[in-house]
Amino acid sequence: MRTGLLSSAALALMTGGAWAADLTLVEVITSPERTEILEQLVSAWEQETGHTVEIVSLPWGQAFETLATMVAGGDIPDVVEMPDRWLAQYSAAGQLVDLGPYVAEWEHGGTLTEQTVRMGSMTAAQKLEQIPYGFYLRAMFYNKDLLEQAGVAEPPRTMEEFVAAAKAVSEMEGKSGYCLRGGPGGTNGWMMFAAAMNDSPEFFTEDGQSTINQPGSVAGLQMLIDLYTSGAAPRDSINWGFNEIVAGFYSGTCAFLDQDPDALIGIADRMDPESFAVMPMPVGPGGRAFPTIGYAGWSIFNATEFPDESWSLVAHLSSPESNSVWAQRVGVIPIHQGADQDPFFRTEQFAGWFEELNNPDTYIPLSMPSYLEGFGYFADQLSIETAQQALLGEITAQEMADQWAEYLTAEYAKYQEAN
Question: Which residues form the signal peptide (predicted)?
Fold first, then answer.
């Protein structure tokens, strides 16, 4: 197909006519709402440039394996929506375009926040191989009505208070305290609880050993297991992904949900704004919480036959105007300086996230070690499978932590050697 396209392009140029690149963009964090806004943004670029884009939407639960299979089989897209934890894998394989030279010449390159540039370069190569489109910071949604009915007077501020409140709600018939994410995408929750109870955001010690099996971390993992086994989380939440936990919250099934701003979209459409609020993540014994901060963005595979056109598409999606629309519709913190002054983000709905951002001594954003080449496999397969075993009582929290520590320590050693 591409050979024919190039021949047509060459013929058009020889005859003085215009030609159009035919690009493929793969999105992996999919939902009808996200796909709709992506199609709108891409359509505007198509009309402006005359090029065409085929958008391929992969179901999130199988996206990691599906994209890897596509790439291995040579069915490589031009542009891909790249979650942070997949970046290192494709970077290490030398499959991504260095966007640094493009950004240096881009009219909007100078307004990208420092965090955007830093996180887009978090690989062993330390090249800008991704333009993040926004940041996901965890905070805790809570159902005011359910807490009142359960006799919980105030939103919990500590982990101990949170567990007590979740168990109090679960005593009501048909209700659960916590929307556990035991299926796809659940790794962040385990890491936050472990970090809070261990009072540390460090994933590795100075001598390169994983901290996930330290006593405090194991206590945090055990806390989540206990919530599930005690009935404070729904029985079927062992398989829940994003859509299920969000639905569990807005349906009134459970009272607490730790999520990023993207969950606010579906919740705000279905709940009375007076019936729920967002608070910071509960703090651990050390008086601190470590809400995970993650991101996804746009990367270009270097197998593309149209690198300049692919960059033009990424630049369009990443412009201040497009990024503002995208951030508001999908629920992320924007990537350009000054975006936080937008009235859209200066509301009570974002209060929990901004309280975390404005109190850096208490709420320390936890960046997952996505720079590890094997972290994508760990986050999307290994950790989910073993966590489900622990929830079912097939292995202990300590055994799970030891498996995770062995894998992460080995991956960190590889990273250190590469650097």
Answer: 1-20
